[in-house]
């Protein structure tokens, strides 16, 4: 491991308007190692990759390949210099043969005529080098996603074999396919290829990576040998424990209101969907905030979507007020009093071109059906009440939502669901990307709603936030619901949750 | 690959299960068309006297040579996942321009390259609009269709007879294989176009890029393929072949008329689809398009032989077949995903 690094990045800084994505980040990659890049969503992993492959220009810092300073104009240039990237989605053409996918654009030719037999021979040999024995004349679509992924890797290393970036290659593979991919990675490692590996599955990182670099909020936390860092330590470094004073709510997590009904509002039993979330049991009572904790990709959003009928479960049952229901569509869920405020407020939530008023009445109108329009006077009354209650600024119902700040857009989205007077409110990442003040307001609002008897399912990547608000914390790890921590009275601290995330056991 | 002493490997061996059957799946639509063609021919032979004459079959080629050329261009476009609605109008424009100039005394040697150039330029223009302005092919070629049809109406509303000696000789020239067995020169030209097109699609980088774009244009771009250039090129080819089809039609009709080839774009699309090319692109063969044109031609022949049926039955049968083949494509592509 004493080799000089093939790739050395030092003091990398990249700022976008309003946000510093990377600040003074160092990263080095040696030949023949698998180096994992770790961090939560927004930590700067993808920015670092994009900076390296020339998608973005850097503001400050130095990138050296084999000791020579380099700046790439784009992924193609980076590829020519020996840095290839394989993305999460396989970027190949499934309708073409395996051999063509490896060689298209650089087929062996004679007088302009493609030499198919030569191409097949060479791709067979290349894949055999990765211990893959495929019928290279068959269309790529006849093979599994894992094999397609490996064909993409074969193409990448045949084009240039020095540095290989694997950006979440395993997120759509099953366990045996992942093992097959790791086999290929280990083989490439022995051949001296430097591999940068990004995955949010900790077990996988520990299975294959030699070293890891941890980023958080665009800054470098450190570089560690995998063997010297426990999963617990890693999770701590990724999530961070510091509490900013501003964010801390004054109230301790509250007791569930005494007169809360004993019967859960929503009860899921063995509910699951293949590839999204393993079967889980979950009960949410009125007046209770249930928090979902887990790393990115652990199945937080997937779980929430099942409860809203946005995805169909493969198995299990949902009971609302003790009666079994089938939530075929979000519409059905809405009729049962379930509201879902989506994590992508721009793409799945608010309609930017419409006014605040129109956005707020959207869900209520939908649940009434289009044949029964809400009278204008009632609209004004409702909208005004919620603008006041939630403190939406500017307090003008006719301004287009597009012109509001992120926090206020989030409030409009909340207002839209609150107006339907839901029994269960599912909020997915309501505080992402909004400023601290607005964040605290939204948190306070959720607490008040629960005090008023509403059941709230709160999904957030920020552990501190989950801890502060929730009465009950459900811990997710790699698409399993691994534990439930009772937080009434604030008995749970971040360490316990992290331990549950890292070990998968309920402590 | 003659490494006999390769050690036994605890390898990741993946043989595509049912490999043969799956590889054949890409041929299912073409085979279905071939079977349909055989069935139709058999029906014709069984029911009508003289249907089995070789010349009946050859006449299908003679009567549809221009459609074959136009459909070959359409095949390139549809393989990239695009569509070209302008082809019929470009055919008409070609016949009108050629007839007008020939009647004005222009030499055939000048008129011929000129009309081919006009069609090619129109195709290039539409391709450029589609690529640079990110306009949907449907809209861009619809505009091209109105433009070309409008231009030909502007030049002359009436049918213009062609009397040029080269044109008349091309119209009457027959390549004879025996007594009463012959094809026209247009058929030879069409077959040359088909063979050249098939070679380009199967054996050149350009051809394979056409398939790659139809499969997944974003991936093709990330793999460093010249997506923009190729996309413009297929519309240019379609424009050129439409003009060539127009020339062949004017040989066949010996006239130029702005209302020639009404709806030919739809016939061409129907032939391509019945021939097994998938409308979303990336799969199919030019050979299939030839079969598709023959199916359309045979339907017409059978209806002619029948004698009592209205010619609108052609449309009805084509409609039913199109529907059946699109459903077949759905089934085939769905299972291979």
Automatic annotation (TrEMBL), chain A:
It is found in: Cell membrane. The keyword Nucleotide-binding applies. GO terms for cellular component: plasma membrane. Keywords: ATP-binding, Cell membrane, Membrane, Nucleotide-binding, Repeat, Translocase, Transport. Pfam families: ABC_tran. It comes from the Bacteria. It is a peripheral membrane protein. InterPro entries: AAA+_ATPase, ABC_carbohydrate_import_ATPase, ABC_transporter-like_ATP-bd, ABC_transporter-like_CS, P-loop_NTPase. This is Sugar ABC transporter ATP-binding protein.
TrEMBL record, chain B:
The keyword Nucleus does not apply. GO terms for molecular function: transmembrane transporter activity. Keywords: Cell membrane, Membrane, Transmembrane, Transmembrane helix. Signal peptide: none annotated. GO terms for cellular component: plasma membrane. Pfam families: BPD_transp_2 (PF02653). It is a multi-pass membrane protein. It is found in: Cell membrane. This is Sugar ABC transporter permease. It comes from Actinoplanes auranticolor.
């Amino acid at each position: 491991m004493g080799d000089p690094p093939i790739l050395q990045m030092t003091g990398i800084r990249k700022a976008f308007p309003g946000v510093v994505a990377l600040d003074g980040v160092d990263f080095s990659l040696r030949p023949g190692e698998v180096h994992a890049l770790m961090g939560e969503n927004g930590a700067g992993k993808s920015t670092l990759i994009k900076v390296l492959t020339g998608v973005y220009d850097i503001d400050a810092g130095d990138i050296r390949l084999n000791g020579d300073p380099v700046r790439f104009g784009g992924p193609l240039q980076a590829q020519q210099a020996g840095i290839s990237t394989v993305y999460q989605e396989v970027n190949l053409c499934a309708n073409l043969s395996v051999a063509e996918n490896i060689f298209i654009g650089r087929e062996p030719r004679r007088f302009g005529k493609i030499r198919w037999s030569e191409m097949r021979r060479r791709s067979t040999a290349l894949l055999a080098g990765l211990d893959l024995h495929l019928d290279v004349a068959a269309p790529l679509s006849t093979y599994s996603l894992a094999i397609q992924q490996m064909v993409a890797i074969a193409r990448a290393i045949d084009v240039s074999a020095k540095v290989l970036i694997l950006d979440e290659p395993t997120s759509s593979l099953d366990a045996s396919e992942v093992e097959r991919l790791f086999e290929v990675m280990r083989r490439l490692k022995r051949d001296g290829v430097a591999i940068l590996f990004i995955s949010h599955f900790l077990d996988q990182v520990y299975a294959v990576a030699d070293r890891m670099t941890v980023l958080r909020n665009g800054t470098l936390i450190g570089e560690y040998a995998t063997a010297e860092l426990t999963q617990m330590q890693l999770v701590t470094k990724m999530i961070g424990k510091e509490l900013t004073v501003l964010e801390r709510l004054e109230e301790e997590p509250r007791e569930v209101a005494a007169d809360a009904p004993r019967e859960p509002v929503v009860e899921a039993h063995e509910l699951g969907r293949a590839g999204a979330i393993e079967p889980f049991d979950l009960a949410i009572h009125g007046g209770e905030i249930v928090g979902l904790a887990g790393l990115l990709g652990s199945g937080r959003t997937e779980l929430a979507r099942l409860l809203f009928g946005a995805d169909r479960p493969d198995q299990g049952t949902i009971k609302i007020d003790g009666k079994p229901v089938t939530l075929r569509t979000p519409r059905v869920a809405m009729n049962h009093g379930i509201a879902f405020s989506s994590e992508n407020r721009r793409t799945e939530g608010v309609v930017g071109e419409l006014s605040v008023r129109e956005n707020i009445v959207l869900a209520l109108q939908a649940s009434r059906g289009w044949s029964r329009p809400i009278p204008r006077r009632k609209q004004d009354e409702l909208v005004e009440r919620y603008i006041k209650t939630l403190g939406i600024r500017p307090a003008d119902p006719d301004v287009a939502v597009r012109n509001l700040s992120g926090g206020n857009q989030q409030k409009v989205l909340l207002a839209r669901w609150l107006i339907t007077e839901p029994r269960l409110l599912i909020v997915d990442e309501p505080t992402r990307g909004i400023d601290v003040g607005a964040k605290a307001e939204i948190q306070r609002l959720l607490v008040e709603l629960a005090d008023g008897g509403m059941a709230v399912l709160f999904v957030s990547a920020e552990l501190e936030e989950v801890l502060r608000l929730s009465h009950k914390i459900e811990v997710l790890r790699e698409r399993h619901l691994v534990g439930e921590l009772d937080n009434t009275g604030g008995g749970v601290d971040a360490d316990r949750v992290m331990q549950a995330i890292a070990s998968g056991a309920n402590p | 690959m003659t490494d006999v002493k390769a050690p036994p490997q605890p390898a990741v061996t993946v043989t595509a299960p049912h490999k043969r059957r799956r590889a054949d799946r890409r041929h299912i639509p073409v085979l279905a068309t071939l079977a349909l063609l055989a069935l139709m021919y058999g029906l014709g032979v069984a029911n009508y006297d003289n249907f089995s004459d070789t010349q009946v079959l050859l006449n299908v080629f003679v009567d549809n040579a221009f459609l074959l050329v136009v459909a070959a261009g359409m095949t390139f476009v549809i393989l990239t996942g695009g569509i070209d609605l302008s082809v019929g109008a470009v055919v008409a424009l070609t016949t009108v321009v050629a007839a007008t100039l020939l009647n004005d005394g222009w030499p055939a040697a000048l008129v011929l390259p000129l009309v081919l150039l006009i069609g090619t330029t129109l195709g290039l223009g539409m391709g450029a609009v589609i690529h640079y302005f990110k306009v949907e092919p449907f809209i861009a070629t619809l505009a091209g269709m109105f433009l070309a049809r409008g231009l030909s109406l502007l030049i002359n509303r009436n049918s213009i007879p062609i009397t040029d000696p080269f044109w008349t000789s091309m119209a009457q020239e027959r390549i004879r294989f025996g007594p009463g067995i012959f094809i026209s020169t247009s058929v030879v030209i069409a077959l040359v176009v088909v063979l050249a097109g098939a070679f380009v699609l199967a054996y050149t980088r350009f051809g394979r890029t056409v398939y790659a774009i139809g499969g997944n244009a974003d991936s093709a771009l990330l793999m460093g393929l010249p997506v923009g250039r190729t996309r413009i090129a297929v519309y240019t080819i379609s424009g050129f072949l439409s003009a060539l089809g127009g020339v062949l039609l004017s040989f066949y009709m010996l006239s130029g008329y702005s209302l020639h080839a009404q709806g030919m774009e739809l016939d061409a699309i129907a032939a391509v689809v019945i021939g097994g090319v998938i409308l979303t692109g990336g799969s199919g063969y030019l050979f299939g398009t030839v079969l598709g044109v023959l199916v359309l031609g045979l339907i017409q022949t059978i209806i002619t032989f029948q004698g009592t049926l209205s010619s609108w039955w052609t449309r009805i049968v084509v409609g039913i077949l199109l529907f059946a083949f699109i459903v077949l494509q759905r089934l085939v592509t769905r299972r291979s995903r």
